[in-house]
Amino acid sequence: MFNFHVxxxxxxxxxxxxxxxxxxxxxKSNFNLNIVKKLISLNLVSSFFFNSNNLIISIxxxxxxxxxxxxxxISKPGRRIYLGLKKVYSDPSFLDFYSTNIGIITSKEVLKxxxxxxxxxxxxxNV
Length: 127
Prior knowledge:
Number of strands: 9
Distance between the termini: 38 Å
Shape: globular
Number of domains: 1
Radius of gyration: 14 Å
CATH topology: Dna Ligase, domain 1
Structural class: alpha+beta
Strand order of the largest sheet: 6-9-7-8
Oligomer: single chain
Number of helices: 3
Largest sheet: 4 strands, antiparallel
CATH class: Alpha Beta
CATH architecture: 2-Layer Sandwich
Order of helices and strands: HEHEEEEEEEHE
C-alpha cells in the first residue's frame, strides 16, 4: 500500500523535468490535488485533468525552459520537519510549500498569515 503521495508527486515531476516532457501523470488524491491547485495559482502548472485514477498535469514553460528547475522533498515520513515563524524566509529563486491548518501555502503566505506548519517541499525556479 502506498501512503506517501507527496514523495511520488515530487519524484514524478522531477523525472518529467529531467526528461524534457511537460506532462506528468500523478496518483489521484486530495492532497495531490491541493498541491496542484496551488501550483496552478502560482502559474507553475498550466492545467490539469482527471483520468480514471490519475491526475494529469502540464508544466508551464517560458521560452524553451520549464518554470520549475527542480523540486526537493524536505519532510519525509520518518522525519517530519516543522518550522516556526522565525525560521521561515522567502527568496525569489525558490518557493517553499507548507502544510498548515489553512491548507497548502507558500512561505510568503506563512509570513503574511502568521501560521506555520510542516515544511513539505521546496520548488527551485528558473529565474
